[in-house]
Design a protein that fits this description.
Structural class: mainly alpha
CATH superfamily of one domain: Cytochrome c oxidase, subunit III, four-helix bundle
Number of helices: 5
Order of helices and strands: HHHHH
CATH class of one domain: Mainly Alpha
Distance between the termini: 59 Å
Oligomer: single chain
Number of strands: 0
Shape: elongated
Radius of gyration: 19 Å
Length: 187
């Protein structure tokens, strides 16, 4: 009797390695935030309310990407396309809300960069901005796979790319929830 070992797909392994690197990067940034906040001149702040709403948007996008993945596995391509498109729209809405939040910081007199800025606000901009870059990367990957679903005469039902995107998307969603809680508790 032979025992068949379940192997991880090389792309999935690569994704998990990349996610580990991203975790280390954000762990380093949030650790630096903790260390720096004990220095003189650090200002306390409260995140603008729009960050709460953007958090809800990103959580809903996690649901929509999961629905899209399930639809793809069931070969319900119209539903898959619809929910992938909704996920992308929610990702863009999240980014827009984050940028509005940065403007609200500025409008309340909290400069994030340049003369008169405070490191507390600069950290928020750097960390949240870096997260936005990761969301944009997810949107690019999502778009590529999404448009491939329309472009082929013969359909390729390889679920791996869709699983990779769903995993990455869930990761950046969880990462934002961590960052939101982090900033809310350590303001």
């Amino acid at each position: 009797m032979t025992v068949e070992r379940k192997k991880i797909h090389p792309y999935k392994f690569s994704l998990w390695l990349g996610l580990a690197g991203i975790i280390m990067m954000f762990a380093g940034l949030t650790s630096a935030y903790i260390v720096k906040r004990s220095q003189p001149g650090w200002e306390s702040f409260t995140l603008p309310k729009i960050f709460i709403y953007s958090t809800l948007v990103i959580l809903v996008s996690s649901v929509t990407v999961q629905v899209a993945l399930k639809a793809f596995r069931e070969r319900l391509m119209a539903k898959y396309r619809l929910f992938f498109a909704i996920t992308a729209a929610l990702g863009l809405l999240f980014i827009s809300m984050q940028i509005i939040g940065f403007y609200q910081f500025h409008a309340s007199g909290k400069r994030m960069i340049g003369l008169g800025s405070n490191p507390a606000y600069s950290f928020v901009l750097a960390i949240a901005g870096l997260h936005i870059v990761h969301i944009l990367g997810g949107l690019v990957a999502l778009s590529i796979v999404f448009f491939k679903a329309f472009g082929r005469k013969t359909r390729n039902y390889d679920v791996v790319p869709v699983e990779l995107i769903a995993t990455y998307w869930h990761f950046v969603d969880i990462l934002w929830v961590y960052l939101f809680v982090f900033f809310s508790l350590l303001h």
